[in-house]
Amino acid sequence: MPDLSALAREAAGRAYAPYSGFQVGAALLTAQGGLFTGCNVENASYGLTVCAERAAICQAVAAEGAGMKVARLAVVCLQREFPPCGACRQVIAEFSLPLGSTEVTLIQNGQPVTLRLADLLPHSFSL
Ligand code: THU
Hints:
Mean pLDDT: 97
Number of strands: 5
CATH class: Alpha Beta
CATH architecture: 3-Layer(aba) Sandwich
Structural class: alpha+beta
CATH topology: Cytidine Deaminase, domain 2
Strand order of the largest sheet: 2-1-3-4-5
CATH superfamily: Cytidine Deaminase, domain 2
Bound molecules: tetrahydrodeoxyuridine
Shape: globular
Radius of gyration: 13 Å
Number of helices: 4
Distance between the termini: 33 Å
């Protein structure tokens, strides 16, 4: 089992975050067993910023195609601890295993904590 939090931390070191100063990394394992990482990429036009989780998901879809499912995902910020933002939760939901059973690992008090997506994003929107 790959250490997704360690891979996310490594990816965070490559973040482009000159505006917020928060370097964020994400690492995910797909249902097919693929491993992908992403980091946040900010922009002078702030709203164009891409979060680490969404960057990792885009890599995974580009490699595995439209059927890609996220089995597990970890997110780490080097400067402080936070869970995935609401926008990223919704994007993870788009590629979640059935019933929001995708596992999301974040760091709390220095320790990895794993939650089901269904608990991180209850009553999620879908079409
Ligand atoms: N950020 C992420 O990469 N993921 C999140 O879930 C929350 C926020 C990034 C966006 C921005 O570059 C910085 O963290 C501060 O908001």
